[in-house]
């Protein structure tokens, strides 16, 4: 855990914020390179803002009583971590479809483009989570387990649960769930990026648009559903599942639609 990348006295550069920014910039440049278009900047910025606002809103709602009820101005401190990816994804999807309707863009084709880059940026965000200490995993005696330092989220939660004395200098060992997800996201990125390059290399485009977007949505929802079982930070529940696992079902279904609907239309000879 290394929450502060640099300290210039009056300016504190947080590692989490820096890595999120790097992830956004990489996505931006990759989207421009893959598309060969220079007219998507406003769209990309809109999706970035929607992603941050949605992710922060979801985190604040989930942790209002424990973190923000008595410190409401901390809602604005996104540089210190505290984003729920699914919240950002849901709002970004809404903005995405709105933009496509207004600009008369193909949601399936444009979805393929963006989803070929998103996992790369998301992976950097999860590495940022590790440096901040949020989104940590369950307690474990595994050789892969790590101990976060004093005042980290894991340290605070374990003290609140009576698992540690307040004099403890680090948390009990927990799984680095953030790094597990980052690794899975990099694998997913390799898959969707290569799929995009393969499918869009042929100018004839003899396939149905939406396959890359569908592969990403289905792949990430499966990753997130599985990794939720390794998370040790407080999780809001919907019955036996966490909220993220419940949302995973909807995201997976959307991924299926992104593949099934264009294929069905193509089979009937309808325009793409």
Summarize the structure.
With 272 residues, the chain is mostly helical. A hairpin with a 2-residue loop joins β3 and β4. It has helices at residues 15-35, 41-62, 64-68, 85-103, 107-115, 118-132, 153-160, 177-201, 211-227, 243-267, and strands spanning 4-7, 12-14, 237-238, 241-242.
Give the topology:
Elements: E1 4-7, E2 12-14, H1 15-35, H2 41-62, H3 64-68, H4 85-103, H5 107-115, H6 118-132, H7 153-160, H8 177-201, H9 211-227, E3 237-238, E4 241-242, H10 243-267
Antiparallel strand pairs: 1-2, 3-4
Helix pairs in contact: 1-6, 2-4, 5-9, 6-8, 8-9, 9-10
Strand content: under 5%
Gyration radius from CA atoms, angstroms? 20 Å
Number of domains: 2
Distance between the termini: 48 Å
How many strand units? 4
């Amino acid at each position: 855990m290394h929450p502060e990348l640099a300290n210039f006295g009056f300016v504190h550069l947080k590692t989490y914020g820096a890595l999120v920014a790097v992830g956004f910039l990489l996505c931006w440049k990759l989207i421009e390179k893959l598309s060969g278009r220079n007219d998507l900047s406003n769209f990309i910025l809109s999706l970035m803002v929607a992603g941050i606002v949605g992710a922060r809103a979801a985190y604040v709602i989930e942790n209002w009583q424990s973190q923000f009820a008595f410190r409401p101005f901390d809602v604005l401190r996104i540089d210190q971590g505290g984003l729920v990816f699914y919240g950002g994804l849901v709002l970004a999807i809404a903005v995405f479809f709105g933009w496509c309707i207004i600009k008369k863009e193909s949601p399936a084709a444009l979805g393929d483009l963006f989803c070929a880059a998103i996992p790369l940026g998301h992976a950097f965000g999860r590495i940022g989570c590790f440096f901040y200490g949020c989104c940590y995993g369950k307690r474990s005696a595994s050789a892969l387990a790590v101990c976060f330092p004093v005042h980290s989220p894991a340290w605070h939660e374990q003290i609140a649960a009576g698992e540690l004395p307040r004099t403890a200098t680090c948390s009990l060992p927990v799984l680095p769930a953030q790094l597990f997800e980052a690794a899975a996201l990099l694998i997913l990125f390799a898959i969707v990026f290569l799929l995009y390059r393969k499918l869009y290399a042929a100018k004839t485009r003899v396939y149905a648009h939406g396959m890359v977007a569908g592969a990403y949505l289905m792949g990430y929802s499966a990753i997130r559903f599985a990794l939720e079982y390794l998370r040790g930070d407080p999780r809001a529940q919907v019955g036996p599942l966490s909220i993220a696992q419940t949302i995973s079902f909807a995201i997976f279904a959307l991924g299926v639609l992104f593949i099934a609907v264009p294929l069905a239309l193509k089979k009937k000879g309808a325009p793409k």
